[in-house]
Design brief:
The protein contains 4 helices and 2 strands. The chain is mainly alpha-helical and 170 residues long.
């Protein structure tokens, strides 16, 4: 139980910091697109995004959407942890929340990979496997966590079925 309390606090703090960062990023993106001379230089994955770059607004929008989806995944993990905290391990909502969180992390990873690949091709340095600077920005990290959460959701769903079958046994 202590581990669940620590995880719950961590998810709350990490999730709130990500939400604040997302709003800050949206504000900077809007400022940059409206008036690029006065705004700060925006970098996505080490590449500068400015109005001379074709579809720069689309890159910023896709990056923001991937970040919102990532935050949604954190929220789904928090929902599952809340249910586990109440000892509702075999509820369908727990397995569904973990599965949805895994999907959110995978979608976020795919969007980040597409953005990075398109930015690389715009700057003439495209590679198949991108290297990211930060651990939390890594596509590989998102994919691994997403797949693990999906697997956890499936395993808990199977456990729910076994428990339901066991409850019917006399």
């Amino acid at each position: 139980m202590r581990s669940l309390q620590i995880l719950k606090v961590f998810l709350l703090l990490f999730g709130m910091s990500r939400v604040i960062f997302c709003f800050f990023e949206i504000g900077l993106s809007i400022m940059h697109l409206i008036n690029p001379e006065r705004g700060m230089a925006l970098n996505l994955y080490g590449y500068e995004v400015n109005q001379s770059l074709p579809h720069s607004w689309l890159y910023l929008l896709a990056y923001t959407v991937s970040y919102v989806i990532f935050i949604l995944g954190l929220y789904k993990i928090k929902e599952a942890v809340d249910e586990l905290f109440l000892l509702r391990i075999f509820e369908h909502k727990v397995s569904q929340s973990f599965f949805q969180a895994g999907n959110a992390f995978l979608i976020s990873a795919i969007l980040n990979y597409l953005i990075f690949t398109l930015l690389q091709s715009q700057h003439g340095s495209a590679t198949l496997l991108p290297e990211f600077e930060g651990t939390f920005e890594s596509v590989y990290f998102h994919v691994i966590i997403g797949l693990l959460l999906r697997i956890l959701g499936v395993v808990l769903n199977i456990a729910n079925g076994i428990k339901a079958e066991n409850d019917l046994t006399i």
